[in-house]
Write a structure and sequence with these properties.
The chain is an alpha+beta fold. It contains three helices and 14 strands. The strands form four sheets. It has a five-stranded antiparallel β-sheet. Strand 6 and strand 7 form a beta hairpin. It is globular, with a radius of gyration of 24 Å.
Length: about 260
């Protein structure tokens, strides 16, 4: 008996005895196995704007990424590189949530690669003084680096969640992006009045531009592309927004203060 004939005989036997046939239904089984994984068990990708001094661009460094160049965007989890410099189309993102944080960093010579505290809150600025490099320093010698956090969905064949951080000279571009988002409106059909559009209803294009002075560095350039026209993509962005909002509110309640470490 051929293999095909044997399979058909087995299938007929299964039907006769009432046994269910195995099927591939990934949608029906959506999320199974993820029940015990919470946000603390996940790594949210950072979209990192590479500079000439970034380890990812140095061929002899352990963190080197093949093909990485200054001015590219790098996804720290998927390891994907995005060409966003001159002549490129850039990368499309949908903003879903924004938060300014005030992390405390140790001096560079003893930095561990991560902040000592993720967010000291805006009140910490009253305890800082600016040094000759216009850095906000604490009495203990550590630095507070104001950081604008833009949570986004990377638009593409397979949309991805990510975080873009802007600090120092890039705070100006962050404020410009916020202004673009704040100036988007929709007309309420019931009142015929303009109402603020949800930030996740618009797609923006991210590019990098090279700046030169005493040294060269790459910064962001954000521009409005168009409205979101895909219902599934819009729902994904909305769900991500609601999740981040609830997480922030929960931590503020747990701490008893308006300080969020995500």
């Amino acid at each position: 008996m051929s293999q095909e004939a044997g399979d058909k005989k087995q299938e007929a036997g299964d039907k006769k005895q009432g046994r269910a046939l195995a099927t591939l239904d990934f949608v029906q089984d959506s999320g199974m196995g993820l029940e015990n994984i919470d946000k603390g068990d996940l790594a949210l990708p950072f979209l990192k704007l590479l500079q000439s001094g970034s380890y990812e661009t140095k061929k002899k460094h352990a963190k080197y990424v093949e093909g990485a160049e200054a001015g590219m965007l790098y996804n720290t989890v998927t390891k994907k590189l995005y060409h966003v410099g001159n002549g490129s189309k850039g990368v499309e993102v949908i903003p879903v949530f924004y938060k300014m944080t005030y992390p405390e960093w140790a001096p560079f010579e003893r930095s561990e690669g991560r902040p000592i505290h993720n967010d000291r809150g805006p009140g910490i600025m009253a305890k800082t003084t600016q040094n000759e490099q216009n850095k906000d320093m604490l009495d203990n010698g550590n630095q507070i680096i104001k950081t604008a956090n833009h949570f986004v969905i990377i638009n593409g064949d397979r949309p991805e969640k990510a975080l873009i951080t802007m600090k120092s000279t890039q705070l100006k571009e962050s404020r410009g992006w916020n202004s673009l988002m704040e100036n988007e409106f929709e007309i309420d059909p019931k009142t015929n009045k303009a109402v603020p559009a949800p930030i996740f209803s618009r797609i923006y294009t991210l590019k990098s531009i090279e700046n030169s002075g005493s040294f060269s560095w790459h910064g962001y350039k954000v521009s409005l592309a168009r409205k979101v026209d895909n219902a599934a993509l819009y729902q994904m962005a909305k769900d991500f927004h609601n999740s981040l909002k609830k997480s922030t509110q929960r931590k503020e309640v747990d701490s008893g203060e308006g300080k969020s470490n995500y």
